[in-house]
Design brief:
By secondary structure, this protein is of the alpha+beta class. It folds into 2 domains: 28 residues; 110 residues, Immunoglobulin-like. The strands form 2 sheets. Strands 6-4-3-7-8 form a 5-stranded antiparallel β-sheet. The chain has a 3-stranded antiparallel β-sheet with strand order 1-2-5, with no helix packed on it. A hairpin with a 2-residue loop joins strand 7 and strand 8. The longest helix is centred in the first third of the chain and has 21 residues. The protein is elongated.
Length: 144
Amino acid sequence: MTKKSFTLIFLAIVLVAVYAIWFTDWFKAAPLRISHTSRNIERLAARGNALPGLRFRVNPMTPLKELKVVPVAALATNANAMPVWHLVSDSNSVPVDEFSYGFDIHGMRPALAGVRPEALETNVTYRLFITAGRARGEHDFELQ
């Protein structure tokens, strides 16, 4: 083979790699799909429970690295707003597909030691941020 043949083959490989990286989803992390369900909020509040019966579902099931709940109004004025609930993974968290607001998730701990989740207010929009490996997701929710 000549030098020209090697150059053309190398150029073809570079073009295929550029195409695969920029124009396909082969190397992009799949987005997390997040949903929520709230149940028995009035009954729990009547018993004096500050944490609502709020459950989140994550698809696909994955080990979480970070979980944060922040009021959307606070995000409008400050990109680094204080979260009302913030958990981080020590090293290996268990893959989860469902969890409840304010409760412990195996393998995760509060970002600041000793900080408990704050009670959520009704008619306030919150945003849940989840990081799981390279995948990230966010979901807005509101208690009625």
